[in-house]
Amino acid sequence: MFSPEGPTLRELAVQALSSVERGYDLLAPKFDHTPFRTPDPVLDAVAAALRRTGPYEEGLDLCCGTGAGLGVLAEVCRSGVTGVDFSAGMLAEARRRTDVTGPRVSFVRADARALPFASAFDLVVSFGAFGHFLPRELPGLFRQVHRVLRPGGTFAFPVLAPPRLAHPAFWMLLGFDAVMRVRNALWRPPFVMYYRAFRLGDVRRELERAGFAVDLYALPEFGRRDDGSPRVRMVAARRTS
User: Which residues are in the Methyltransferase domain (predicted)?
Assistant: First the structure.
């Protein structure tokens, strides 16, 4: 997909007609050659922002995929970093690809909605995973993150400003979500992947209900829109209770 090393249209079709877990197992060997991987500039900008608020001891990459976010954690966590994902294929790629120095690295296969940890982490990050959760699942997901963080710990993730109505990207995302809704209405098992379901106002409200104090940091590397608002923000939600 968009590169010789990426998946073919047939492979993407097979993935799209699978469950989320099975689909990512199939896609895992070629995932880093698709547009779905979080771009390095976003990872670097979040790492820079976290260096200003850290350091941290133990870090968790929630829905780590092939491990792109583990490098961010390794820059700001002194003791250990853990990647958790429910796709065995993605975790296998993460183990193969991850090469960080400093903190110890471990991997755990688990569902983000039922994390097998106690209050073990000072920092949780996540990149590009929230489209796989329905809006009604966010309160439970945020409660899970709250539970695995130590008091005062931080849950951080980037949020891109939504495209304007007149921008082609708006209609591309709208069309993608419409196709996925039709697919899920006609085919089982469902493949949850919606780009327009994660709205910052709703997310902030649910984080606060889950016991977080929420701060927003503009990531200056991406500039501002015409109205002066940041193109990309980092949400930093601190466990307060």
Answer: 60-153
Most confident of 44-48, 161-165, 184-188: 44-48
Is pLDDT above 70 for 2? no
Average pLDDT over residues 36-49: 92
Domain limits at 73?
39-162+199-239
In the prediction, which pLDDT does 197 show? 64
* Whether residue 204 sits in one domain with residue 91: yes
**142 and 233 co-located in one domain:** yes
Specify if 118 maps to a domain. yes
Residue carrying the six token digits 């891109």? 160
Transcribe 76-110 into DSSP letters.
HEEEEEEEEES-HHHHHHHHHH----SSEEEEEE-
Cβ-contact 173, 57 below 8 angstroms? no
Tens digit of pLDDT for each residue in 132-151?
A: 888 899 999 999 999 999 99
Is 181 contained in some domain?
no
- Stretch (H or E) spanning 56: strand 56-62
Number of domains in the chain: 2
Number of residues written out for the chain: 241
